[in-house]
């Protein structure tokens, strides 16, 4: 298993009127693949944020393999 870091990203309009992307939450998981990591992170995000669907609070997610050991 590998360690993955998942960033849940949301596009918002800043005070200056320009669109920017912010990170709503970072979730770390151990998984066999990026796809499995994404699914596990979505579940953790929903539990933490107490929502049924992660996409209500984020537009997309980025999954990266961690640079550090688990």
Outline the fold blueprint.
Elements: E1 2-13, E2 19-31, H1 34-49, E3 60-65
Antiparallel strand pairs: 1-2, 1-3
Description:
The protein has 70 residues and is of the alpha+beta class. The chain has a single domain (2-65), classed as Roll (Ubiquitin-like (UB roll)), CATH 3.10.20. The chain has one helix and three strands, in the order ββαβ. The chain has one helix at residues 34-49; strands at 2-13, 19-31, 60-65. The protein has a three-stranded antiparallel beta sheet. The termini are close together.
Low-confidence stretches: none
Number of helices: 1
CATH class: Alpha Beta
- For the biggest β-sheet, the strand order reads 2-1-3
Distance from first to last alpha carbon: 9 Å
The average pLDDT is 93
CATH topology: Ubiquitin-like (UB roll)
* CATH architectural designation: Roll
Q: How many strands in all?
A: 3
Helix and strand string, N-terminal first?
Answer: EEHE
Beta-strand fraction estimate: 35-45%
Which radius of gyration do the C-alpha atoms yield? Answer: 13 Å
How many domains is the backbone divided into?
1
Relevant terms:
single chain; 70 residues; alpha+beta; Ubiquitin-like (UB roll); 1 helix; 3 strands; 23% helix
Summary, kept brief:
By secondary structure, this protein is α+β, with helices and mostly antiparallel strands.
């Amino acid at each position: 298993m590998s360690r993955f870091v998942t960033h849940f990203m949301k596009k918002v309009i800043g005070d200056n009127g320009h669109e920017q992307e912010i990170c709503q939450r970072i979730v770390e998981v151990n998984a066999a693949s990026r796809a499995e990591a994404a699914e596990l992170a979505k579940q953790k995000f929903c539990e933490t944020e107490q929502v049924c669907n992660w996409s209500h609070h984020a537009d997309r997610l980025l999954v990266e393999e961690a640079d550090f050991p688990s």
